[in-house]
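Q: What changes when zinc ion is included in the input?
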Amino acid sequence: MMKLTFLGATGTVTGSKYLIEEERTRILVDCGLFQGYKKLRLKNWEPLPFDASQLDAVILTHAHIDHSGYIPLLVKQGFNGKIYCSEATFSLCRILLPDSGYLQEEDARRANKYGYTKHKVALPLYTKDEAEHSLNFFHTVSFGKPQYITDELHFTLSRSGHILGSAFISLSNDQDTVTFSGDLGRSSDPIMHSPARLQQTDYLLIESTYGDRLHSLTDPALEIGEIITKTIARGGSILIPAFAVGRTQSILYYIYKLKEAGEFTHIPVFLDSPMAINATKLLDQFKNEHKLDEKIMPSCL
Ligand SMILES: [Zn+2]
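A: The predicted holo structure follows.
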């Protein structure tokens, strides 16, 4: 009998954490930070409703911080089990978690310097060093292969098509299977493969960030192309803020496609983010995780 408790991503779209309890086993599926408004971020400081040292394992759907960013804090609170995820998710966490620690240290430093903290001393949730230490608990697993946590409790990862390494987690005991979607990819993404077709599950938990909106039917390349062409014509530059993992690579791909088709070929493109550059390089390392062919890779990235 599995007992499921929602500890995040309910009533909001960040902080994904699901606690699964059996008689003698406790598992967390995803371990994300709350992000966005201050009211939400303050939730990261609230005590967990369980003892982190009594948790047996964590399984991650993917590396985005709202699904993985609480891990250093979990380890800081005494967790010493295994953190299971796909290989590419681990590679991304090695980039994202230390960066998250660095940002928290920077925020605390700035709050102390300019005195905008109500506390005597503003502290980071965790430091870059603590984030790096938490990487020692990671344990990578292959897609499609059952991984046993106890004699009965096991899980299988299948591709969810959202970002590199992203997975559905199907968790089973000898009675039931519960599947966690994590964030869901699209069936016709230009870079990522379509999400896998699930074969069987008793319960399905689907995360939905934009559940009440439909995807636009227009081609994003055309829309981006129009904006760039118009701006260049009046002598301007274009700044595109984008999430480092996933969205940045999609935008680079669309720009590459437009240039290949002969549009604004003389316009240089700069990717001004070491984290996004490192995340983009991983596409080359995990070639079977995406659709880009080898010819595109060097010129696109
Ligand atoms: Zn995500």
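Observations recorded in class: The chain is about 30% helix and 15% strand.
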